[in-house]
């Protein structure tokens, strides 16, 4: 599997505080990859390291086979849209497009102009007078017109209303279908990831808890509910992700490739949100082992 991003024991420290530590992850090419995890997991730090905005304190990272931000050519291959949809309030839409063309050697002026026109953004409108959704769309336009091989988006729709989120994500998916680039998108909104991502990475405390194609993850994760049972009595091929118990009942989320035939269990499938929450809440040792096996 070709990777657009590879990190090995990657770390970033600010003074005595590690924002990211001992992170190892592969991001596959040709996918829209959702990166999800709790606050403080290291998602934004990882993305900024990948975009060349930060230098690592420890470990190694390569993006598209090179060191992030090492050369202008390397920078030109990666697009980045941050959470605050960075645009310049005093500049017009046309100013942003001219600036993008000046700074990016792979700039596609036709893509930029056509997209701005389709969105109804007037060239003379100043960014500071645009709505939040319009600013996000302008930032996405700048990222797409750069014609990146990898587009990194860090919580790009966090502050948008549901309609603006839908329009942003629809525009992103149309661009992916047309231009065939890889995407790495972080978000707390699992429903948005479920809509557009075909690969998922759950990051907790800088470590990958699970990674894989979303369809396969959903097909191999199950909720088991039945009489109280010690996890040691479960079959060896059922890897426990999370567990809860009452006096009489046990509920497990397990990952397995094998059919579950035990009549004592009521078996149900998980939503993507259920799966994410189970790996975020589950015991680290079990989750890390499951993550490694899913990636093999």
Offer a few descriptive terms:
single chain, 296 residues, alpha/beta, Rossmann fold, 2 domains, 6-stranded mixed sheet, 4-stranded antiparallel sheet, 10 helices, 13 strands, 35% helix, 29% strand, elongated, disordered C terminus, ATP binding, ATP-binding, transport
Question: If you had to describe this structure to a student in words, what would you say it looks like?
Answer:
The chain is of the alpha/beta class. The protein folds into 2 domains: 3-205, P-loop containing nucleotide triphosphate hydrolases (Rossmann fold, 3-Layer(aba) Sandwich); 215-295. Helix content is 35%, strand content 29%. The strands form 3 sheets. The chain has a 6-stranded mixed beta sheet, with helices on both faces. The chain has a 4-stranded antiparallel beta sheet with strand order 11-12-10-13. A 3-stranded antiparallel beta sheet has the order 2-1-4, with helices on one face. Helix 6 (162-179) links the parallel strand 6 (150-154) and strand 7 (182-186). Helix 4 runs antiparallel to helix 5. The longest helix has 18 residues, at 162-179.
Write the layout of secondary structure elements.
Blueprint (H helix, E strand, L loop, with lengths): L2 E12 L2 E12 L3 E5 L6 H8 L7 E6 L8 H5 L1 E4 L11 H11 L5 H11 L12 H14 L4 E5 L7 H18 L2 E5 L3 H7 L2 E6 L2 E7 H7 E7 L11 E7 L3 E7 L10 E4 L2 H10 L2 H12 L1
Parallel strand pairs: 3-7, 3-8, 5-6, 6-7
Antiparallel strand pairs: 1-2, 1-4, 8-9, 10-12, 10-13, 11-12
